[in-house]
Amino acid sequence: RVDDFARRRLPPGWQLDRPAFDAGLRQAAQDAGVALIAPARLLAAQLQHPGPAPHPGGATAARWWLQVEDAGAPPGGRPRALHARLLVEASGRRASLARLLGHRRLRLDHQVALVGQGPPARPLQDKPHPLAQRSFIEAVPDGWWYACQRPDGRRQLALMTDQDLARRLRHPAAWRTALAQAPQLSAWLADTRLPPSATGCDDDDNTTAAPHPVAAHSGCLASACGPGWLAVGDALMGLDPLSSSGVSGALRDGLDACHQVLLPWLAGAEPAGPGRAWGLRAQQAWQRFTTERQALHAQVHHWPDAPFWARRHAGAMPAVQGGASTPLTTPALPLTPA
C-alpha cells in the first residue's frame, strides 16, 4: 500500500538543511540582541526566594542563579555565574535543566534509529532521483525505514526499531536483510549500488561497517513547567519521527511560550497562572500526538506477532503533569524513567 503525502490535501513538506537552519536561527537571535554562549554546559541552577524588588507590571518574581561552563573560554577559566528571572528548558531530549532540578523524563517506548549514509544518487534518465524530491518511509517486521536525500546529495537511510532489536540489526548482514525486506525502498535504491553504510562496506577498504544508533523514542517530562521555568521542544516531549513534527512543533512551542507565558509575565501576571495554562497546553499536545501515533501504527497489520508492532498495538497514552505536583490527565499505563 502506497500513501503519498500530497494526496492528503495537505501543504507540501520541506526537506530541511538542519545545520544551516540552526545556524540561521542562532544568527537571527544574536542580531536581535541575544547574548549567545556556545558551546556551554549548565553546571548548577538554584531558585532563590522572591524578594521585594519591583517586577515589570508591579508583580514580583523568583530569581535564578546559574553556573555555566563556557567551552569557548580560555582553558582554566572559571564557570560563569548568571542570573535570570525565567528559564526555558530547550536542551532537547537531554532535558539538562529539568533533570538538574530533579524532574523525571519518561518514555513511552525504546525506539532508536539506526542511521546510515550513502553516496550521491545517480539521476534516472537525466531526472533527479525520486529521493531528491520527497521523503520515503516503508514498514518492515522489525520497524520502519526512512530515506531521503540530504542537501549535499548523499542519501540517508534510517531504520526505526526498538533498542533490544537494534542490537541484532546493527550487524551489517542483518542490516542488509532488513533493507531487503523493504521492496519499495530497495527498488528506489536500485539505480546505484547500495550505500556503503547500508551494505556494510566502507568506500575505501571494503571492511565491515555498521549504522550508528540515534535516540528516536517517544517521551516527555513528567512536569511541563514549574516555578520560574517551562519546557519547550524535544525537552518537553520527544515525538516519534513518524509524526514528522519535531522541528515545527519546537518552533510552535517557542512562539506560544512567548505569547502565552513570557509576555503576560512581563505584564505582571502571576507566574502560577501561565504555568497552569502551559501545562494544559502540553497535556493536550501529548494527547493529540499519542492519538495520531496509535492511528498510524494501527495501519500496519501485516506482522501482528513481530515484537516491534505488537508492542505498539498494545500501547496506551501516558500522563503529563502541568507542574511539579499538578496532574492534568487521568492515570494511564506507567511510563519508564529515561
TrEMBL record:
Where in this protein does the record put region Disordered?
Answer: 319-338
Q: Where is the composition biased (Low complexity)?
A: 326-338
What the entry lists under InterPro entries is as follows: FAD/NAD-bd_sf (IPR036188), Flavin-dep_Halogenase_NPB (IPR050816)
- The protein here is known as FAD-dependent oxidoreductase
Q: Which organism is it from?
A: Ideonella livida
